[in-house]
Amino acid sequence: MAQGPTSRTYKFAEAQRRSGGCYRPLMFAYWGRRGPLSQLSLELAHVIAARNDFRCTISVSKQNEQFDKFNFLHEDLFAIDTYNKQYQAFFRYMHLRNLRRNLEQRLLCDNTRAFVSLMPHMWSPLTASAIRRAGARHIAVIHDAGCHPGDRLGLANGWLLREAAAADHVITLSATVAHQLVYAHGIPEKKISVLFLPDLNYGAQLGLGERQCGPLRVLFLGRMLPYKGLDLFVDAIARLRDDGVQVQVGVFGEGKIKPTIAATLSALGAEIENRWLQHDEFKGILSRYDIVAASHWEASQSGVVATAFGAGLPVVATPVGGLVEQVAHNVTGVVAKSATVSAFADAIRTLAENRGLLAQLRRGIVAQREDRSIERFVNKICDIALCRRN
Known about the structure:
This protein has 390 residues and is of the alpha/beta class. The protein has two domains: 5-198 and 373-385, 3-Layer(aba) Sandwich (Rossmann fold); 216-371, 3-Layer(aba) Sandwich (Rossmann fold). The chain has helices at 5-19, 36-50, 93-109, 124-133, 157-160, 162-166, 175-185, 230-242, 259-267, 282-286, 303-310, 323-326, 341-352, 355-367, 374-385, and strands spanning 26-30, 56-61, 77-80, 114-117, 137-142, 169-172, 192-194, 216-221, 247-252, 271-273, 291-294, 315-317, 333-335. The strands form two sheets. It has a seven-stranded parallel beta sheet, with helices on both faces. Strand 6, helix 7 (175-185) and strand 7 form a beta-alpha-beta unit. The chain is elongated and about 65 Å long. The model is unreliable at 1-6 and 12-19 (pLDDT under 50).
């Protein structure tokens, strides 16, 4: 049962006495271990630390692959113990029990007004009651409303969406996901705000000039899951080569590549790194290519697109899900007419044969960078979490 104002006032007074009276109105949390949200959380932490209007707490897992990079936060960091293997989520009861207690105490200690979950975690539905007891609003950023085909981790999506149901407010990163939450999961529309996935900056900075000679260098980046459309991408590149279009290919990411696809990539002379990529590798990879392919069969929104834009690289995308919201056709990329091999090949062909358009798209990415910035993203979330008018 939720505790009333008198109980909270007493607990807050005790916490304030022990802490020296800190005030951090917002806590941002990402408890995952790896992936693009680790980079987003790190960039968000730097933006928060640079603010001069108020301080915030950043909560990350000690098992996060970039945990050491959050040390600059000092006392504004709330580090927690989670787990190294997914199955351990079901057996580390004492860690979860301690997390619930310590989370409530920290929220009270900082007089936190709102807790912002940047991505659902396996333990998120089990900590909602601690957030309520501390009297903080619960804001959940929901990335997916369903399971992506072939993604085993997505099988837990139904459980993770319990956080959306328990939260006071939900933020999605595309209207596509917001629509699915309303019509497939019964989340009230008035409870949802639609924002965007900001650019992810790995340090690759490209020039805006035209590269007039040489093959178009096309990058496929990310986990090799069926819905990412590696098969569509490879077939499109093979078709372009058969038509005499000069394209050079790179495929980078962890996951199973079918033998037939691997054989085709080898025949195409593709640069292949079929493994998990470390964050400090992205700069060098992105700097060697002209465009990024998002050949998805299905999508909520794409961290690959955010990574490409962060490096100033245009994107060729299929017209599915939230990709059409992320990629502005002929402004920041080219959206294929359909999710077919012929249409995707034609979209790449457009850039291979028109280097002036490629340069124009790069300029378009720069021109709209502020709209996709992490600073704007943070400001929007602060407005929502603190109930300020946008």
